[in-house]
Design goal:
This protein has about 450 residues and is mostly helical. The protein is about 80% helix and about 0% strand. The protein has 18 helices and no strands. α3 runs antiparallel to α13, α6 packs across α12 and α9 crosses α12.
């Protein structure tokens, strides 16, 4: 890790923090899971871990969000430090005790603490990373963490994710995470187009959509044939998921709308695989695409709430994406277990949930993105009206755009591949045609005319 760049770039610091927190949480989860598998019946493991464990994580996330309403950054740092220390302490009895009751009690407490510490990096993502870079920061961090998690589980036949060696691994990760939590993150970013903080409807709808999506996906991927494809294995699944996370981060930063639609596409995969049952090659392709699109799903539900939280100036709400995602994951697991013996009822139930989810998803999509398109078109039209009113040439319009971005003459010259003398000539023409004496007056005139 380049420590000089880490120290100077807040995006790198948040990415490193996210990677470390997630890797610690997932390694601790694997430790607990493998130990429960030795003590409980195979049929109950998923219910105990994903069914109840995810709900405990949601409680931890919710408690942190509630605390964050009145807490400052330093207080959240201290809470996270305490959560990390307590998390590692709880891992000892939850992964070594021979008593199932003790394992479950300390394991659920560890899950709650895991929710607390994961909330912190989501808070930092919304507060210290600008929106056009959030997808890459989060997606890349999760992708690398997924790869490292696989590496830990592969060394020595999984030795580093079991028993005493696993606890040592978590202890080392905890020390790294504590150092990253205590590292300064710089100044908070400011959103260019803040959303009305009183717009609760969009926030509530986003939470409901995330919960329903997670529920539908969790139950849908329990369909018969979903994992009964030749060539399916855990290692390749993680690799594909990691690649999907990275691609999803890049695509979402390029255009949030495309990332959202790809996330909705992830929900279709179980139905396609069910329809292709018996066709080996197409089913294998659908299986691979399913894990790739899961990356879009994981990135979307985090970015959606992180963007809304940042726009409303309430970064503590960024963790709601993971909170409602975990609630949906838990309920999806429970539904899949309860209805596993009646596949037709399971498929019918998920189909109904899918239809409801898609309906609400596009209602949210309309609120978030259709309005943004209209605003962009309106801004373009206002610029053209201003330029036409003052009879600006095409080159003067290009210069005006950069002047409005408060670029210097040298920056404008570099952008347009002309000399600074040429830029000064066009700026003088802008001042003459608009009747202004300096750049500040041009800015005031433009914003006054287009407000």
């Amino acid at each position: 890790m380049d420590m000089n760049r880490l120290a100077s770039d807040p995006r790198m610091r948040v990415a490193a923090l996210t990677l470390s927190c997630f890797l610690l949480a997932s390694t601790g989860w694997l430790l607990w899971l493998y130990h429960i598998a030795k003590l409980a019946s195979p049929a109950s493991v998923d219910m105990l871990t994903m069914g109840v464990g995810y709900l405990m994580q949601a409680i931890g996330i919710g408690a942190t969000a509630f605390y964050g309403r009145s807490a400052d950054h330093r207080q959240l740092q201290r809470l996270t430090v305490g959560a990390i220390v307590a998390f590692v302490a709880c891992l000892v009895p939850s992964t070594l005790s021979p008593n199932l009751t003790s394992v479950l009690a300390f394991g659920y407490l560890a899950n709650l603490l895991s929710g607390c510490m994961q909330s912190y990096y989501l808070f930092c993502l919304a507060r210290f990373v600008e929106a056009p870079r959030r997808g890459l920061v989060f997606g890349a961090a999760y992708a690398v963490s997924t790869g490292l998690s696989w590496l830990l589980s592969a060394v020595g036949g999984g030795m580093l994710t079991r028993g005493i060696p696993g606890l040592v691994s978590c202890g080392a990760l905890a020390l790294l995470t504590l150092a990253l939590v205590r590292m300064p993150l710089g100044d908070a970013v400011a959103e260019e187009q803040p959303r009305d903080a009183s717009d609760h409807t969009t926030l509530y709808l986003a939470c409901i959509v995330v919960a329903l999506m997670s529920l539908t996906k969790g139950a849908g991927f329990s369909f018969p044939t979903v994992d009964l494809v030749d060539g399916v294995n855990l290692e390749l699944s993680r690799l594909l998921y990691g690649v999907g996370l990275l691609i999803a981060g890049i695509v979402s930063d390029y255009d949030r709308k495309i990332g959202a639609l790809c996330c909705a596409g992830a929900l279709v995969m179980p139905f396609l695989m069910l329809a292709l049952a018996g066709a080996a090659a197409p089913a294998t392709i659908m299986w691979a695409l399913g894990y790739l699109f899961n990356g879009f799903f994981s990135v979307f539900r985090v970015l959606l709430l992180a963007d809304l939280a940042s726009e409303q100036g309430k970064p503590q709400l960024a963790c709601l994406g993971l909170l409602f995602g975990r609630v949906g994951d838990s309920l999806g697991t429970i539904i899949s277990i309860v209805l596993s013996s009646v596949p037709l009822v399971l498929i019918t139930t998920v189909s109904v949930l899918f239809a409801l989810t898609i309906m609400l998803f596009f209602a949210l999509y309309q609120r978030l993105y259709a309005t943004a398109v209209e605003a962009t078109l309106s801004e373009r039209e206002l610029f053209e009206r201003f330029a036409t009113r003052h009879d600006l040439s095409s080159r003067e319009r290009e210069v005006l755009r950069l002047v409005l971005e408060e670029r210097t003459n040298s920056e404008i010259a570099s952008e347009l591949f002309v000399s600074e003398a040429t830029v000064k000539y066009h700026v003088r023409n802008l001042l003459r045609k608009t009747g202004c004496h300096n750049r500040l007056e041009i800015l005031a005139l433009y914003h006054g005319a287009t407000s």
